[in-house]
Amino acid sequence: MAETTTQVLIPETFQGTTYDIAGQLGLIWELIKAPLIVPLLTVGVYVSLAMSLMLFFERVYMGVVIVLVKLFWKKPEERYKYEPIQDDLEVGSSNFPVVLIQIPMFNEREVYKVSIGAACGLSWPSDRLVIQVLDDSTDPTIKQMVELECQRWASKGINIRYQIRETRGGYKAGALKEGLKRSYVKHCEYVAIFDADFRPEPDYLRRAIPFLVHNPDIALVQARWRFVNSDECLLTRMQEMSLDYHFTVEQEVGSATHAFFGFNGTAGVWRIAAINEAGGWKDRTTVEDMDLAVRASLRGWKFLYLGDLQVKSELPSTFNAFRFQQHRWSCGPANLFRKMAMEIIRTKKVTVWKKFYTIYSFFFVRKIIAHMVTFFFYCVVLPLTILVPEVYVPIWGAVYIPSIITILNSVGTPRSIHLLFYWILFENVMSLHRTKATLIGLLETARSNEWVVTEKLGDIVKNKAAEAAKNKTADANKTKPASKLFKRPRFKFGNRLHLLELGFGVFLFICGCYDFVHGKNNYFIYLFLQTITFLICGFGYVGTIIPSS
């Protein structure tokens, strides 16, 4: 009876040893490979090559234009009307326009003093400056600390206002929109926005505002970001390399050729009339800054990027914080593209060339194709062709094109050229999350409006080093240190694990082993290195590696 039951429950072809099961699976693989797997993978190769060429031509175009801009373009002060606003003892400060400074915050324990202090230190007549701290903090202790800091500066004669809301509706966009509704800002002509970790130099307004005053068609003046903690760990160095290309090339080219680029959300000065004409701040995506920039551009407003006007800021130094930031930065543009593509096509206030640039170059290639081709081609399709040798990948698509793209990407940070190979491997890992976020934004699924504020550590790491030196001196003198430093947050090992990265690390390791035994192209060298990078990120240790200078 037992034998009869066994025969009924287990098919005859699957009885026997493990070797027999492996043989059956191998037979099934051979049966479906030729009619199904090979055609699908071939299509994947062609699609990937097409996307690679799109990205390649985009990078070459940007490279050619930036060279022409640097060699032949006039400086912003020569392309636009520019005259510094001078102090005049006779008329006082009346020749200075009234400027609003907005500083949105959310539980910024470590950096709130930095941004508030920098804003209060701006070289601008105090009666022509309004500083607005928009605090959405949920921690009562932090809210009290921020409010006391505002009161401290107010006691020194600074016109600073502390604003809170009942709810965090609309997140940052909601806070900025609510701030512009206050009666005491109605006489302000321009608004400068700084995130809580940004530290403008005292002459920031004096260098940026004249472009807006003397050029009524300019809506936005954007400054470049600089990073105070770029040398903290390998994670921050990788981010610096990516962002330096964005500012050195993408923003510069957009400003010089089309007077359009994506507002970076901070370190920029807006003409308030342009914000109002474009429809104000909207919270329909997680990139409210890009949303406003595109709407203003479609109404004919121009933007100006000043590469030599720089504002210090902080990079995420933990992998979890960086992942959440990249999700927001990848999902938001894709979701905005979904919402605005037809509006861009239908508008009649801009040229066809600018429409094409916005839709194809700005959105489609840079915000969608760039993420997808990196992940699908180099982390999925190329490894799979090792297991299916019938599918051929031309050497120009697998090696030459990506090498040129990588070299072009490296121009922004020459000091990190020796880290270029690891930057490639790290970007391949992050393309997994960017592709996932891009698809979420395009399909507008549940996480498309997820907003997690990027964790900022301020001067904790620097203070920790100083405290360690102090403690060492104290130990030498056999005295106890006077204070105890706030420690950098530590995470449990379980919180460090990222299963997606670990899973792809295992997949690439299997493909690498197969190529080492059976392959002819020596892809296993790349695959093993990429495996190591996936595993480092999967175990959450990328933020602990200190780069060589």
From TrEMBL:
Listed EC numbers: 2.4.1.32
Record membrane topology: Multi-pass membrane protein
Subcellular location: Golgi apparatus membrane
Primary location class: Golgi
Gene Ontology CC terms: Golgi membrane
Domain Glycosyltransferase 2-like: start-end pairs: 190-392
GO terms, molecular function: glucomannan 4-beta-mannosyltransferase activity; mannan synthase activity
Entry superkingdom: Eukaryota
TM stretches of this protein: 45-73, 400-426, 497-517, 523-546
Catalytic activity of the protein: GDP-mannose + (glucomannan)n = GDP + (glucomannan)n+1
GO annotation terms (biological process): cell wall organization
Enzyme category, top tier: transferase
Keywords: Cell wall biogenesis/degradation, Glycosyltransferase, Golgi apparatus, Membrane, Transferase, Transmembrane, Transmembrane helix
Similarity remark: Belongs to the glycosyltransferase 2 family. Plant cellulose synthase-like A subfamily.
Protein name, UniProt field: glucomannan 4-beta-mannosyltransferase
Organism: Malus domestica
